[in-house]
Design a protein that fits this description.
Number of domains: 1
Order of helices and strands: HHHEEEEEEEEEEHEE
Largest sheet: 6 strands, mixed
CATH architecture: Sandwich
CATH topology: Jelly Rolls
Structural class: alpha+beta
CATH class: Mainly Beta
Radius of gyration: 19 Å
Number of strands: 12
Bound molecules: fe (ii) ion
Helix content: 10-25%
Length: 278
């Protein structure tokens, strides 16, 4: 079955799971034929082996640049996609709740390569990436991205709330529409829009490179938030007014929202030839 068929019929995908926050192990595969290899994808994988050094590390600026250079040039075809796939054609989905699907190209302890498929109007709610560096490459479609960084305030560590349940002050880093092809965005563990949300304007495919991946058992679970205008809450932690206050929002942690559920589909694109990291 081709990936086109899988994408055309995501609702009947063979592997259903709560995706994005996965801990799936590597699957055993038979060696791919030369025709099934994508050199840009293989190059990305080899660079990831070199760049992601494990928990508690952040890639150096040179390494970030190296990965961005590869990702900026990646095309949908490099992971087996095409804008001609039925999934990416405009269609009416009135009465249908658009559901996000995801597929894992590769995952190991140090990093993961995934693709998220968003039908038009689908959302990935505001969520964080604890201790992770994330590269986001929009391969196809048009998406609205909103991204925040938590604000570190004096007399606090990297979290600015006194109690976990109290809303945290955050600075708006991005709030706009991105259309493929566009350059890669990088989110760092504490900056660069570490907490973000997506809303698809047209059907989208987003390639995510995360290092290290989410892992609940290692304390890197995903938390979800709702954003509240700065002036709507009475906290006096930081006093801002006028234009400045428009840049600041409160992020309140919420229960895992229903829209965060994703459907896992099997990756059917070009395969990676696994190598041992040096
Ligand atoms: Fe994310």
């Amino acid at each position: 079955m081709t990936i086109e068929v899988r994408l055309a019929d995501m609702s009947k995908s063979i592997r259903k799971k709560k995706c994005c926050r996965k801990t799936s192990s590597k699957r055993k595969r038979s060696p791919p034929s030369p025709a099934a290899i994508s050199f840009p994808l293989q190059r990305l994988y080899i660079s990831c082996l070199d760049v992601f050094k494990g928990v508690g590390t952040v890639p150096s600026p040179t390494d970030v640049q190296k990965l961005c250079h590869i990702l900026d040039r990646m095309m949908p075809e490099d992971v087996g996609l095409s804008r001609n796939l039925q999934f990416f054609k405009p269609r009416s989905n009135v009465g249908v709740t658009p559901k996000v699907a995801c597929t894992t190209i590769y995952q190991c302890e140090e990093f993961s390569l995934s693709i998220f498929f968003l039908p038009a109007n689908a959302v990935i709610p505001l969520h964080n990436h604890p201790g992770m560096t994330v590269f986001v490459k929009l391969l196809l479609g048009k998406v609205h991205i909103k991204a925040y960084d938590l604000v570190s305030t004096e007399n606090s560590d990297d979290s600015n709330s006194i109690l976990p349940s109290q809303p945290k002050l955050a600075s708006l880093k991005a709030n706009g529409v991105f259309t493929a092809p566009c350059d890669t965005s990088v989110l760092y563990p504490t900056s660069g829009g570490n907490i973000h949300a997506f809303k698809a304007i047209t059907p989208c495919a987003i390639l995510d490179v995360m290092g290290p991946p989410y892992s609940k058992k290692d304390g890197r679970d995903c938390s979800y938030y709702r954003d509240i205008p700065y002036t709507a809450l009475p906290y006096e932690r930081a006093v801002m007014s006028g234009e400045e206050s428009e840049r600041y929002w409160w992020l309140e942690e919420i229960e895992v929202p229903k829209e965060s559920e994703m459907e896992g589909i099997e990756y059917m694109g070009p395969q990676i030839i696994e190598m041992s990291s040096s």
